[in-house]
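Data availability (excerpt). The following record was deposited with the supplementary files.
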Amino acid sequence: MSKIRLALAVVVLTIWMFICFAVAVTVTGTIDQAAASGAGAGAAETSRVALALLGACLINTSVLAYPIVRARWHGLELIATVFLLFFGIQTFMSQIETLYFASALDISARQTFNIVASGALTALLFAPAAVALLGKMRSPAEGEAPGGRQAIPLAKLATPALGLSLVYVFLYFLVGYFVAWQFPAIRQLYTGSTEILPFTAHLADVFGGNPSILPWQMLRGLLWVGLALPVVRMMDGKRWEVALAVGLLFGLLLTSPLLIPNRFMPAPVRLAHLIETSSSTFIYGCLVGLVLSRRG
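Predicted structure:
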C-alpha cells in the first residue's frame, strides 16, 4: 500500500471510528451530556468534547493501522485480532482498573457496564472496516506471504510472563508515585488529602491499607502479556518494530480517552494519568514485545 493510500485510509477510518463511537454511546445509553462541566454545557463545550474525541480517534486509528498493515494474518482472523486489541486495551484493561477504584471515581457498576458495552460495539463496528480499507481482507498470492518473526512458544511462556508481570508492578508503582502522585489533584481524589509521603512510606501505606492491590496489578501485568501475544505472532518485521507496535498500542490506545473531558475525572487528574499511564505502559509494551518476539 502506498503512503498516500495509507494516509487516506487513516483519515477515512478516523472519521468512521468517530461515527462508530457516536452510534455506540447512543445505543448503549452512555452519552453524558454533562461531559466536562456539568449540566448545561453549551455549544462551545460540546465542540471541545467532539474535537477531543476526533483527536483520540486519530490516535487510535494510527496506532492500530501500523500492526494491521504489517500483519501476516488477514480476513476474519485479523478482524478478530483487531477487535481484541481495540476493545481489550482501550476498554477492558481501563475499566477493570476503574472498577477497582470505583469509590474514588464515584462511578457506578451500571455506568461502567455501559462504557464496556459502548467500547465493545465501537470495536465491533471498526475492526472489519479497518481490515478492509487497509487491504488485509484477502491473503497475498502464493510466494508473496511475508515470513519473519514468531512469539515464544506457549509451553515456554510461563516464566517470562511471570517476570514481566513483576516488571509491570514495579513500573506501576514507580511511575505512579514519581509522576501521577506528584499532582495534588491526584492525591486529593484518591485519599481526600494533598499530603505527600516519601516513596517507601507511601508504599507501606498503600499495601497496608489495600493489600489486594499487589496481586491485582500482577494479574493486570499478565493480562497485558496476553494482549501482546497476538501482535507479536501476527506482525512481520524486525524485533524492534514489533516492540514499538506493542508499546504504541499499550501507551496510546489505553490513554487516548483521557483527552476527552468527562465528569468522573477533572482536567488535572486526566492530565496526570495521561502522562503517567502513557509513559509506563509504552515502556512496558516495548519490553514485552522484545521479550516475547524471536526470529522465525
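Summary of structural features: The chain has eleven helices and two strands.
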